[in-house]
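Subject: for your reference before the review

Hello V.,

The reviewers asked for a structural picture of the protein, and I figured it would be easier to keep everything in one thread rather than splitting it across files. Below is the amino acid sequence we used in the manuscript, unchanged from the supplementary table.
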Amino acid sequence: MLAALAIPLLFGGLGALLAGGMGDFEQLAKPPLTPPGWVFPLVWTLLYLAMGWASGRVYLIRHPVQVRRRALKLYAVQLVMNALWPLLFFRLGLYWVSALWLAILTLLVVMTAGAFGKLDDLAGILLVPYAAWCLFALYLNIGVAALNA
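And here is what came back from the structure prediction:
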């Protein structure tokens, strides 16, 4: 289970590395409801831990390997997409592209939550806050794109 908790944290760290600095972000016009900067690492850490816990439950549950593997492949794809989003948004400043990327990521998170939920109710529920945060992040991303075009 420790590996399952560590994997999303490592992908989050990769995303932070790919983002580079966030100094330019402070200069951007932001939409209403944008939280202070310290909220993001706190929320993401909690979300990554919940994702890890959920994936660990799915990995350990007694279901056919191919069913678990399908759900965990979705999980892996969304982890990679999550780690690449900061590159698009922060480092490259591709706000509209990153919004589209985030919309696809959100869909993948919902699909992963559904796949996890079919195997284990709690595993699916643990991804609901992540899906909600992705929707909120999509609102913020679109807001930044529209206000800074």
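For the response letter, the relevant points are probably these. Residues 2-147 form a domain with the Ferritin fold (CATH 1.20.1260.100). Residues 65-91 form the longest helix (27 residues).

Happy to draft the paragraph if you're swamped.

O.
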